[in-house]
Amino acid sequence: MNGARIDKWMWAARIFKTRTIAAEACKKGRVSINGALAKAARVVNAGDVVQVRKPPVTYSFKVLQAIEKRVGAKLLPEVMENVTTPDQYELLEITRASGFVDRARGTGRPTKKERRELEEFVEPEFTDDFDFEFDFDSDTP
User: Fold this and answer.
1) Burial letters 95-134, b for 16+ CB under 10 A, else e
2) Rounded to whole angstroms, how far apart are CA atoms 58 and 13?
3) Nearest Cα to 11, choosing from 26, 22, 24, 25?
4) What is the structure's pLDDT at 16?
5) Do residues 57 and 96 touch, judged by C-beta distance below 8 A?
6) Average pLDDT in the 24-38 region?
7) Is the pLDDT of residue 108 over 60?
């Protein structure tokens, strides 16, 4: 076997949960092979670099084996190599830290987790640690 369809390879390499989602990502222009946008039927070969945009991060993977059958997670290092740049992971961490800020308007009420994060951001715990007692009634200076 020389190559594999990109949608099948991304599913087999566990980049996407289902092949349908992988094909949809190709259709939306979120997948490129060696810098060129790829349709779902495009063939990927060993040595190609696949870039997948999962906003806000663009992941990059080097194809080591072109497979179409899903493999276990332990065998992934034989199938692909993650060559995503560290600045993309920094961007992901920044986004996770400020996740509630990027909430789209009109998406409904915040979840319980989002509400707790928002309350923690607005009223941090350490503000309650101060226990000052002021005696305003005494006449002594």
Assistant:
1) eeeeebeeeeeeeeeeeeeeeebeeeeeeeeeeeeeeeee
2) 16
3) 22
4) 92
5) no
6) 92
7) yes
33-89 pLDDT, tens digit per residue, is 998 999 999 999 999 999 999 888 889 999 999 999 998 989 999 999 989 888 888
- Alpha-carbon separation of residue 40 from 10, 29, 37, 103, 112 (angstroms): 10, 10, 10, 30, 38
Q: Which CATH architecture has domain 4-84?
A: Roll (3.10)
Q: So where are the chain's domains? A: 4-84, 98-130
Question: pTM of the predicted model, to two decimals?
Answer: 0.66
Radius of gyration, CA atoms only, the chain: 24
Phi-psi region of 104 (alpha: psi -120 to 50; beta: other; left: phi over 0): beta
Query: With the CA atoms of 58, 59, 63 and 69 taken in that order, what torsion angle do they form, in degrees rounded to the nearest 10?
Result: -110
CB neighbourhood size of 13 (10 A): 24
